[in-house]
Design brief:
Elements lengths: L8 E8 H13 L4 E3 L2 H6 L1 H4 L6 E7 H16 L5
Antiparallel strand pairs: 1-3, 2-3
């Protein structure tokens, strides 16, 4: 698993807290360390925060993992739903 490199962070996804959490799990399953930019603020009170910009969080990875992370997210977004 890649380690966090706080000096070289790349945003690979931005969306609602639940969406970013899903993408974070996807990356973790492929041994890519990621974190949510404003995770704590977004999880305080979803009702209050849902009407603010804080309802959107940025999923970030190290620059070294960014290409693979973007590929995985794109593959997931283009996949067909399971019926």
């Amino acid at each position: 698993m890649s380690t966090q490199n706080t000096s070289m962070q790349v945003e690979v996804f931005s969306g609602e807290f639940w969406q970013a959490s899903l993408m974070r799990q996807l990356l973790a399953e492929h041994d890519i360390f990621s974190y949510l930019g404003n995770e704590l603020l977004s999880s305080i009170d979803p009702v209050i925060v849902s009407t603010t910009v804080a309802s959107h969080v940025a999923l970030k990875v190290s620059q070294a993992d960014s290409h693979r992370a973007l590929e995985l997210i794109e593959e997931y977004n283009n996949s067909e739903p399971i019926e």
